Amino acid sequence: MKKFLSLLLVMLLITGLFTGCEKNEKNTSEIEKSNSETVDNGNDDTSDNEPKEEVSKEPITFTMYSAEANANYDEFKSPVAQKIKELTGVTLEIENEIGTDPKQRLGIMAASGDYPDLVYAKGDLNLLKDAGGIVELDDLIEEHGSNIKKLFGDYLPRLKWSLDDPHIYYVGTYPVHEVSLKPAGAFWLQHAVVKELGYPEIKTLDDFGKAIKDYYAKNPKIDGQDTIPITILADGWRFLISVTNPAWAVTGGSDDGEWYVDPETYKAVRHHTREEEKEYFRWLNHMNNEGLLDPESFTQKYDQYKAKIASGRVLALTDAEWEISEGETALRQSGLEERMHGLYPIVLNESTECRVNQSPGYTGGWGVSITKSCKDPVRAIQFLDWMATEEAQILTHWGIEGEHWEYDSNGKRVFLPEIDEQRRNDTEFSKKTGIGNYAYPFPEWGNGIKDSTDNYVQPDSEIDDVIANYTDTEKEILAGYGVKTWMDLFPSPEKFTSKPWGATWMYNIDDPDLVEIDNKVRDDIGMRLIPKAILASPDKFDEIWDQYLKEMDEADLPKLTEAMNKLIQEKMELWQSK
Q1: Parts of the chain with a pLDDT under 70
Q2: 37 in a domain, yes or no?
Q3: How many structural domains are present in the chain?
């Protein structure tokens, strides 16, 4: 999955506080304890015995390539971007990925030797590293990265590349010290569906399918348009998010991308080779043959998919929140609250436990790198170090004091009313303000951290904040199920210990032969035969699925699996180093 994601995912990531073997890991049940945690003020982040480094604010422009698409990028013209420039002297010229395969752009860089100053390659940094295109950051962090070191703390070893090459080549992305306040998951059902059906039990795939079918039978059209019972998205790498990820979610897995790791043995298998997951794809086959699966599921582009969601006629989705958020915001903006969707902990059967909120701890694996072509590596690391300060974190998450936020009478940081309204309802909020555009993929404090003013550095870091973001319809739906938050419907994260291997979707695979196997199994075989099985007549499903398994074996999946299991063990060993 998320060798190619975003996520974006967003968000999306299933991170929490941390338990396990590391000294500072905690269980996600300790939310209250974690939420009282503070870090040093970013404006004075050196120790008592270490003088604060004087950093030049002379104007400098850094070029950057990001393998993440960002439709709301502000071209470094937003108020937040201009404030970053004022405080640091740095201007960023960011080229965000606009296609579906960032490997092509990265491959061109590696072949030509023509690099920007900075690069965020997501899961394909090995392409640049193997070509000698990025620099080791160990010494730069030691000399100029006091805030980076404080942010990552005991997690700094998780930024190291490998046992054979235990150096740091990127400054990690995704929040450090994150508390799960909103559930992760893949199964979304329109509020109007559960409301009209009288809040039925929605726990298993059968429950989910029945609700979709029953409502569709009564409502074949919505606002004069044909109702879409369920749609999925298979546009490029998004296939992994909407088509295959739900298979591990519904069968008791947690987010390891294309792998399932046994929590007892730490042994990995390609997740859709599991017999349990075959039954999920059989369910999709059944939904298709019942006429309930959108016939455009495997041909529609992302923009078409978002437009369908925004139209209010899609009853159910299998996707990540960050991938459907634009459509949901558009529904909210249009006053179509009942046509928005709620997230449910769907499992294959009653004996399966939903583990989508199991924390990986801090995963490492992806981040921003400095290339060999960087015009000033010291200024670059100083800028990345500044991004890890309190000052930068407040700016990138909240905006500018007086313009976007203020302190209320109790000393709590709050958005100005008009900004709060805008961020909930305006799909171009980030583009207009810059808020959120410079958090990911740069170093980021998690929502479990308070700053020097005893405020959370991220908005919506308390349960009351989360509830305040709900629409009236959401509150009504949740009350119908006897809970206050969507997380209340899911097993509590405290039930699960943090995964000592992190998350395999953020692992870097160096060996070109293994990368080729991985690409073939995923992009050629998987993206060809999984849709074929789903769209087949029921009597052909098993035959096509057997063909799928056979072709993966013939493509050397066992060799890749052996390498992944070795990598898991090496990661756990590496992360214990200091």
Answers
A1: 1-51, 100, 578
A2: no
A3: 3
